[in-house]
Each structure stands twice: as C-alpha cells, then as structure tokens.
Amino acid sequence: MDSKGFIENIEEKFVPISPIIEFAINKQLAEIGATKDDLDGRQAMMFIDNMTEALELFLGNAESKKKRKYMISLLRKYAPEYFEERSLI
C-alpha cells in the first residue's frame, strides 16, 4: 500500500476545510499505532472509521459520509490488494 500517497491525498482534500483537521489526521494515525509511511490496509480502514467519526463533529453526519466515500475510493486506489484479498471490489 502507498500509505504516504493515501494520507497526502486526504490532507490535500480535507485540511483546507479547517486547519484542525490536520491535527485530527495525526491523532487518528497515532491512535491506531501507524504513521503516514507504514499504514497497511487494515489500519487504513480503522483510520477511515475514526476519521469519519471525527469529521462528523466538524461537518455533520451527511458531509462526513461523503468524506468517508472519498477515503474508501482512495483506499481502493492506493491499496487495491486489500480489496482483492477480501473480495470487496
């Protein structure tokens, strides 16, 4: 998985919404015990779940669900093997 590319795309899309989102991204990575450079597919799904909850506080339920779909599409792009292993494609 290209974890660095995955997180960088999320940062590019979400941080302009509010600078505190950068803190939320780093906090969620720390909570799952990963960094931008070593995130695997399973951890990325945990990250997405946690970020969705965090974004709900900032953006509301409907908008956080849209952001979740975006993060899932990025995960498909950056970790296609994760979806192939689980037959989620």
SSE order and pairing:
Layout: H1 3-14, H2 20-31, H3 41-59, H4 61-78, H5 80-86
Q: What would you note in describing this structure?
A:
With about 90 residues, the protein is mainly α. Helices cover about 75% and strands about 0% of the residues. The two termini are about 15 Å apart. The mean pLDDT is about 90.
Write a concise keyword list for the protein shown above:
5 helices; 0% strand; mainly alpha; globular; 89 residues; 76% helix; single chain
User: Unreliable segments (pLDDT under 50, ≥5 consecutive)?
Assistant: none
How far apart the termini lie comes to: 16 Å
> How would you sum up the global shape?
globular
Q: How many strand units?
A: 0
Major beta sheet, specifics? none
Number of helices: 5
Q: Estimate percent helicity.
A: over 70%
Q: Structural class, from secondary structure content?
A: mainly alpha
**What's the pLDDT, averaged over the residues?**
91
Task: Tell me the β content.
Answer: under 5%
Radius of gyration: 12 Å
Write down the secondary-structure element order. Answer: HHHHH
Gist?
By secondary structure, the protein is mainly alpha-helical.
